[in-house]
Amino acid sequence: MAVKKEFRRNRIKQRIRKVVFGEATSPRLSVFRSNKGIYVQLIDDNAGKTLVAVSSADKGIAEAKVSKIEQAKLVGKAVAEKATQAGITTVRFDRNGYLYHGRIKSLAEAAREAGLKF
Fold it and tell me: Which domains does the chain have, with CATH numbers?
């Protein structure tokens, strides 16, 4: 019997979460990708709080009529700007079980170019 996509992604996600842990100085940059949008959070796992959150549904990003990969680049740039305003320079990247290509890769590269280190 074939393994379902969701089950496979959850297994990969558990493997990643064993290693990646966010702190106040270097929070976890967690990415969620849906069919329509992409969502990013900077999470402090010690306190259990979200420090910064950006999504493709935010005003400036949703109004731009671009492809999903370009949308992910805009989200990556926006999260880097918000993080630097909050005093965060280094993060730990949590791809959340998704493969590192396409929208996830473009988001990560845009965040790096905008000043985040991971």
Answer: 5-113 (3.30.420.100)
